[in-house]
Amino acid sequence: MSNIEAQVSDYYNKLLLRNAGEPEFHQAVAEVLDSLKIVLEKDPHYADYGLIQRLCEPERQLMFRVPWVDDQGEVQVNRGFRVQFNSAIGPYKGGLRFHPSVNLGIIKFLGFEQIFKNSLTGLPIGGGKGGSDFDPKGRSDAEIMRFCQSFMTELHRHIGEYRDVPAGDIGVGGREIGYLFGQYRRLANQHESGVLTGKGLAWGGSLVRTEATGYGLAYFTKEMLTEHGESFEGKKVIVSGSGNVAIYAIEKVQELGGTVIAFSDSSAWVETPNGVDVAKLKEVKEVRRERVAAYVNEVPGSKLRLEGSIWDLACDIALPCATQNELNGAQATTLADNGCKFVAEGANMPSTAEAIEVYRERGIHFGPGKAANAGGVATSALEMQQNASRDAWSFEYTDQRLHDIMANIFRNVAKTAKEYGHEGDYVIGANIAGFKKVADAMLAQGVI
Ligand code: GLU
């Protein structure tokens, strides 16, 4: 074992002890540290001043009680989180997730990923993430509003345009951002547009923000395809999920000539051999907030699947857009056996470490989430720019900016991978390129 390798595994073993019971956080850190060994062999000064240990320790971790009253008059108690991970290059920036699986380890993994993703956008945003174990499923609109108000009653003292700027993630969309913004505005006694992103268009929101993560994923994948002499034209594409990321990924992939042959939600997956009726999917999921069975009942030719896995289907391109660890090693092997050549992640860390190993062994070109799904947070940063200048840009201009940002991310990631002797390994390229900008800022700013 080289000196650097021994040093890095010593950091990692200490991190496991200090952060017991947080497997997703361990997984996210292990992948980044693996890439950083390559940087440290070449540029050992990046280990000076406790830089790596500081990078893996959040600047601040907030956990708070969120009490609220349900429609039956019963008191419910949830737990709220905000992990302010790193603000070396800009205010903390990252979404809020409302889902029963949320715990501190999940928020820390998401916050850690966000540092590198936000750095890759080229825009001045630090990394953070938050949320709650609140389950919005089956809750009335009034319950969602009361929960959001209680959550913001505590969170408001920790956020601000120059401090920390939350947005949406799983379980938090335009409706929730509206209730959260309303309560912030009331408590702060000022209309501070830049404190949240993903706002409605009438009150400081940006065009393209709704579409941004999915469109950005399609733009990134298009660059990756072009690099390898391919395009979306005539390709069979699997998109898991049917939330905000999946819907707009499906829309853009089909616009670019691909056929989306399957999507899913947590209840089932749907086979759509002739492509997806995006207008119907939007109506079912965004307007009626129903399960995918409703889509199948109304779209002839689509089939509801309760058995097996969405990754069993033969495809050319797989875009996991549901949630973390939704695609394991065995499923990655099935994808490879069935001829899949490209995987790009719309969700955060949807591929397990074993799946990523399979992509490497089987020659699948792989765009990791922190690069491929950065379009959402990048467009949030564009929303912040519009708020700061009290301006509102056109759809075309904002979409062009998003497109250029995603193309730049791909080029930067590909170039960095090559520079460090791992041409075509976009995991290593993304981790190193994202890291270096943050690390340079941290070194310049001293031991903070
Ligand atoms: N939740 C999204 C992400 O994972 C967007 C965050 C944001 O816009 O701040 O990047």
From TrEMBL:
InterPro entries: Aminoacid_DH-like_N_sf (IPR046346), Glu/Leu/Phe/Val/Trp_DH (IPR006095), Glu/Leu/Phe/Val/Trp_DH_C (IPR006096), Glu/Leu/Phe/Val/Trp_DH_dimer (IPR006097), Glu/Leu/Phe/Val_DH_AS (IPR033524), Glu_DH (IPR014362), Glu_Leu_Phe_Val_DH (IPR050724), NAD(P)-bd_dom_sf (IPR036291)
Gene Ontology CC entries for this record: cytosol
Residues that bind substrate: K93, Q114, K117, G168, S380
Reactions this protein catalyses: L-glutamate + NADP(+) + H2O = 2-oxoglutarate + NH4(+) + NADPH + H(+)
GO biological process assignments: glutamate biosynthetic process
Quaternary structure and interacting proteins, as annotated: Homohexamer.
Name of this protein: Glutamate dehydrogenase
Species the sequence originates in: Corynebacterium kalinowskii
CDD domains: NAD_bind_2_Glu_DH
